[in-house]
Every structure is written in C-alpha cells, then in structure tokens.
Design brief:
The chain has a single domain, classed as P-loop containing nucleotide triphosphate hydrolases (Rossmann fold). A hairpin with a 2-residue loop joins strand 5 and strand 6. The chain is built from twelve helices and eleven strands. It is α/β, with parallel strands linked by helices. The two termini are 24 Å apart. The structure holds adenosine-5'-triphosphate (ATP). The site of adenosine-5'-triphosphate has 14 residues, from helix 1.
Length: 303
C-alpha cells in the first residue's frame, strides 16, 4: 500500500503552515511521527484524522513547540508563514509562534484556570506576550465574546470558569484563540468533550470565524463526520504516518487508501442506514503495522 497524495493547491500562495518530512520520537526510543509532510494555505481548514494514537495531536504539539519533555523532533522542518521555526532559538521561536498561532484545546474544563476570571485569561496573552495595551485587549476580548454569541460579555469577563457551562467555556476558548488575530489555529478535537447539539454549534462557529478572518486551521479529529463538515482538505494518519492527503470531497468520493475506505465505512453517516457499521478490519491494521515496522527496519538499516 503506497502513500496517496492527490495534487493539492500546487499553484497557490505561500502556505501559512508547511511541515516537511517531520519525524518525532520518544527520546532514545520508538518513532511517533514518520516523515509527515503537509501544508495549510491561508483560509484553509485541513483535518488531521485517524484513530487514537495515530499522532494527530503530536503534529499540533510539534508545530506549536509544546511537545512533552520525553519526546523530540528528530528531523524535518516546520515553516510558519515561510519562516523556518527550527532555525530560531527557543525564546524567539516561542514569540514567533505566540504571535502567529493559537490552540483551541480539547477539554474546556481543564483548559481554563479555575481560580482566575475569564477576562484576564483572554487578555493576558495579548498584553503580556504580544504588547497590546490593556484597553485594546479588553475591547478585543469583548468584541470576540460577542462574536461567539456570549450574552452580556462584560459580566462573563468578570466570571470564573465554574460559573459557566461547558459549551460557553468552549466558546470562550475559541474567542481567546481568535483574539490575537492568528494566521494559524490548531484545533485539537475541540468538540469531543461536548454533547452533539453543542458540537454542531461549535463547529459552525469555528468555521464562520476562520472564514471571516482567513485563518488557516489544522483541525484534529477522529471523526470522519466532522472532517466532512469542517474541512476542505484532509490528511489521514495511521501510526504516525500519512496514509492519504487530499481535498476532502475527493477523499469521500474516491478514497485511495484502504485505511481511508475503512475509516469512512466505520462512520455512521457515511454508510447506508440498513447496512451494519464495519469497524476497521483488524487484518488491515495488522498489515499496516507490519508494513510500517518493515519500513522502519529498512530505514534504520540505511542510517
Ligand atoms: N507524553 C507522552 N509520552 C509518551 N508517549 C506519548 C505521549 N503522548 C503521546 N504519546 C504517544 O504518541 C503517539 C501519538 O499520540 P497522539 O496523542 O498524537 O495521538 P492522537 O492521534 O492524537 O490520538 P488521541 O485521539 O488518542 O489523542 C501514541 O502512540 C501515544 O501513545
């Protein structure tokens, strides 16, 4: 089974994000990402999809420079708006990423500090890291809270997280992510912790805000239904390796890789209602793992 890469955006402008041949591993241990390459153009939403452990979040963490201490980038290049992050020192890299990129995290319960008011949690990054005046940061926070349909934004700015529902907290995290006008947003399963109706609202909101602002989005999800709703392009991952990368429409109309076909077959909305759902076949998983282990061993032999 070979990697399938349809021709995506060959003649477009400079990508907001470019990842070239990224390899990530446990320090002195096993590989977690294998030669991952992808790009996200301004205004594009690229979904990263795969089952648990595929390495989706790891790509987001590598881009944002927040890998756990026991994990390292072993090779490859990450470019943000054409600037190679690997060439920068740690402090400069942090500043470049903070100015250009934001994260929408998975869990709105743990992402907000319970002991601090909402307002300061939105404005702090603008003021302390990006040099905005306090008045501008306040105004921007109020504008964004209004934009994410939070009623009475002034009151909410003065509230603590426990006073708000899960859906409201996720909308606050979306407001916080968009507040500094980032060129890239990494959304790490931002709807997984929410119930279905709230999920739909949150997806719509992210889509609206990114379309208005032309922000590029790397959207991590395990759900092909979410991929269909939110993205224009999709990268399918298995065991830290890209299986297929293509415009979302093409992937659903004509999936090239057996693993992609299996993921679509395992998603309720994309199967006939009378057909039973087919989980990803264990033999396919076993074969892919074997192939990847063989490729790893061959790669190691060439070092
Ligand atoms: N802190 C860590 N220490 C060691 N291994 C880790 C750590 N975090 C993740 N991993 C491993 O890295 C691989 C990729 O994990 P990652 O979290 O990126 O997967 P994912 O595709 O986002 O899955 P999920 O949907 O479960 O979060 C997995 O094999 C995982 O076990």
């Amino acid at each position: 089974m070979t990697l399938s890469t349809h021709n995506v955006g060959a003649d477009t402008a400079q990508p907001t994000l470019e990842v070239n041949g990224l390899n990530v591993a446990l320090r002195g241990g096993s590989r977690l990402l294998r030669d991952v390459s992808l790009s996200v153009q301004p205004g594009e939403v690229r979904a990263l999809v795969g089952e648990s452990g595929a390495g989706k979040s790891m790509i987001g963490k590598a881009v944002l420079g927040v890998l756990p201490r026991n994990i390292e980038v072993t090779s490859g290049q990450i470019l943000l708006q054409g600037e190679s992050l690997d060439a920068l020192g740690a402090a400069q890299r942090r500043q470049t990423v903070a100015a250009a990129a934001s994260l929408i995290p998975q869990d709105p319960l743990t992402a907000l500090n319970p002991s601090r008011r909402i307002g300061v949690q939105i404005t702090e990054r603008l003021v302390k890291r990006l040099g905005w005046s306090s008045a501008d940061a306040q105004a921007r926070a109020l504008e964004l809270l209004d934009r994410v349909h939070i009623r009475d934004p002034k009151r909410v700015m003065a509230s603590y997280p426990h006073e708000l529902s899960g859906g409201m907290r996720q909308r606050i995290l979306i407001a916080a992510a968009f507040a500094p006008k980032p060129r890239l947003i990494v959304a790490d399963e931002p709807t997984t912790a929410l119930d279905v109706t709230v999920q739909k609202q949150i997806l719509r909101l992210i889509r609206e805000l990114q379309a208005e602002s032309g922000t590029a989005v790397l959207f991590v999800t395990h759900d092909m239904g979410v991929v269909a709703k939110i993205s224009q392009t999709v990268t399918v991952l298995f065991a830290g390796k890209v299986m297929e990368s293509a415009p979302t429409r093409e992937v659903f109309a004509n999936p090239q890789h057996p693993y992609t076909r299996a993921l679509i077959g395992a998603t309720p909305r994309y199967t006939h209602p009378d057909e039973p759902l087919k989980p990803v076949p264990p033999e396919l998983i076993a074969n892919l793992k074997k192939e990847i282990a063989l490729a790893d061993a061959n790669g190691a032999a060439h070092v």
